[in-house]
């Protein structure tokens, strides 16, 4: 069905707003965010073009689209080169009570079939909810397109009443992963403090609160209990880097 003039006008405004923001971010050297806005704006302009019948308007739209596509391609090549050179860095700030930051949402675009080995350094994989967090993270890693064969976990040992719970929980996760052809290597350290996740496809993540950035659900029957995209978060910062060669922590 052909779109009405009002719909096309609305898309044109949305496209120009996104592209204006892209240019602003570009001028501030915030290239990763700029590329996202360029892609969004170009996609909206393409939709406007498909719904436009006037030849002159079509010619002007094609010219605009080509110009923005050329710039977006330059930005993309620059970012790709930064990844290759190990200089890539993106920061995500998760605000207090923000939602939409499940592990899938945060890591998904960095998961591909070249990912076969993962290192997790997090001192607080101890309490029951932290063990469940780690389990959820592992579940994400064994799904397609990943071909993860080994997961390394470096954490601290609970020396209190939760020691047995931590030990048995991690052993159960290890056995479950083994049933899926994945090896979990466990290592404990009393001096580990930093929180870091490394993928052997070059991606590295530093999360201020580690995997434990979700708030406790209000009840077992509240939204967000199972779907972590709906779970409110604690305030934290996620720094994402890319190195050509990722080594063991």
UniProtKB/TrEMBL annotation:
Gene Ontology process terms (BP): cell division
Which protein is depicted?
A: MIT domain-containing protein 1
Location within or outside the cell: Endosome membrane; Late endosome membrane; Midbody
Q: What is the species listed in this Swiss-Prot or TrEMBL entry?
A: Zalophus californianus (California sealion)
**What is said about its interaction partners and assembly?**
Homodimer. Interacts (via MIT domain) with CHMP1A, CHMP1B, CHMP2A and IST1.
Instruction: Please provide the record's keywords in A-Z order.
Output: Cell cycle, Cell division, Endosome, Membrane, Transport
Q: Where is the MIT domain?
A: 8-86
Which sequence ranges form a coiled-coil region, renumbered to this chain?
Answer: none
The record's section on Pfam families has:
MIT (PF04212), MIT_C (PF16565)
What SUPFAM superfamilies does this protein map onto?
MIT domain (SSF116846)
One GO cellular component, as annotated: late endosome membrane
Q: Which gene encodes it?
A: LOC113931265
Topology class, membrane: Peripheral membrane protein
> Can you tell which superkingdom this protein's organism belongs to?
Eukaryota
The record's listing under CDD domains reads: MIT_1 (cd02683), MIT_C (cd02685)
């Amino acid at each position: 069905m052909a779109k009405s003039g009002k719909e096309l006008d609305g898309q044109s405004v949305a496209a120009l707003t996104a592209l204006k923001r892209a240019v602003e971010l570009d001028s501030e050297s915030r290239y990763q965010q700029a590329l996202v806005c360029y892609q969004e704006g170009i996609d909206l302009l393409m939709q406007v073009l498909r719904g436009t019948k006037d030849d002159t308007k079509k010619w002007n739209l094609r010219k605009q689209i080509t110009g923005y596509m050329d710039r977006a391609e330059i930005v993309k090549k620059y970012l790709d080169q930064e990844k290759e050179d190990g200089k890539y860095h993106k920061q995500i700030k998760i605000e207090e009570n923000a939602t939409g930051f499940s592990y899938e949402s945060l890591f998904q675009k960095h998961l591909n079939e070249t990912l076969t080995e993962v290192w997790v350094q997090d001192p607080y994989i101890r309490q029951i909810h932290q063990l469940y967090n780690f389990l959820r993270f592992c579940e994400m890693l064994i799904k397609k397109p990943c071909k993860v064969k080994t997961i390394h976990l470096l954490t601290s040992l609970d020396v209190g009443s939760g020691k047995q719970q931590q030990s048995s929980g991690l052993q159960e996760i290890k056995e479950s992963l083994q049933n899926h052809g994945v090896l979990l290597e466990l290592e404990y350290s009393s001096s580990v403090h930093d929180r870091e996740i490394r993928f052997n496809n070059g991606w590295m993540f530093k999360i201020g609160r580690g995997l434990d950035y979700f708030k406790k659900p209000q009840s077992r029957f509240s939204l967000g209990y199972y779907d972590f995209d709906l779970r409110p978060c604690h305030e934290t910062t996620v720094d994402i880097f890319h190195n050509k060669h990722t080594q063991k922590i």
